[in-house]
Write the structure tokens for this entry.
Amino acid sequence: MIKYLGSKRRLVPVLGEMFTASGAETALDLFTGTTRVAQEFKSRGGLVTAVDSARYSEAFARCYVEADADLVDAAEVAGALEHLSHLPGEPGYVTEVFCEQSRFFQPFNGARIDAIRNALDADFAGSPLFPILLTSLLEAADRVDSTTGQQMAYLKSWAPRSFNPLDLRPPVLLAGAGTALRGDAVDLVGALGPFDLAYLDPPYNQHRYVANYHVWETLVAWDAPEHYGVACKRVDVRDGSTRSPFNRKREMPAALAEVVAAVDAEVVVVSYNDEAWIGRDDLVDLCRIRGEVCLLAFDSKRYVGAQIGIHSPSGERVGEVSHLRNQEYLVVAGERSLVRHMAARFAGNRLDVG
């Protein structure tokens, strides 16, 4: 998977155990991001619906959640990747914008990304292989980028990995069906379900994923957008339609409360942390509408970008790291016996909720 701010990689085993303990057969991952959690639920036999507003998230969900490994010809995927891997570089938008005007990729890799992405539209548009091959390209590009894991900026000097040649690898697919949807959580949540379990991992602050990962948005849309700023962000990042109430401090609590109340699920699990706009007591209170509430806390290492200080646009260090660890919260809400059974394995992480 790609490097991702807010990734729940460390909590995935916990969430997987909770899913199994709940006895759930159907699950909703409403802010799916890279689909890590959705994949965990699917690997445990769940019929999963993965939702996000980002184009790249939809691409990942179509690959890892919607595609059924039992129905995909692995040899056909391997052959397609072999063909794409041998295409000569073809400098285009990625090379010009993300290699020369900015420094996300080295030009030799940028030219190959351009060639492969053009070929995907020319040779595989509409094919069931398309999201699988596109996911392979996104992940390959992530392995040779020159960032700390998000695309609001790039490193002043080339990252060592950026010198490696682009390497397309087949995504590891899972057996079983699933559903991928793109849209706003507030708009969609009332029309989704019913589900046995719903997992909600909303944004925590003003930073929008469409801006943090604008390069992936462009690789999926492949629309050669106008851009602005040192990072060459898509101009639609400035568009009001790309803004969510979850990125506005005043609107976020009401939006989350609306989603928690509206989701049609037997049990709801909400991820949050101690750096977010809503305090843990308020978070627990808004989840009480679902029934019994259990709060679990897990110590976590902060995102790598928080560990290297604050830098000016020229790369000069102008600030210091405040702290290196935080608390990741999981709020489990629903019928009392079910909630307690799901949380029993993690009694040492339980916090008092009054």
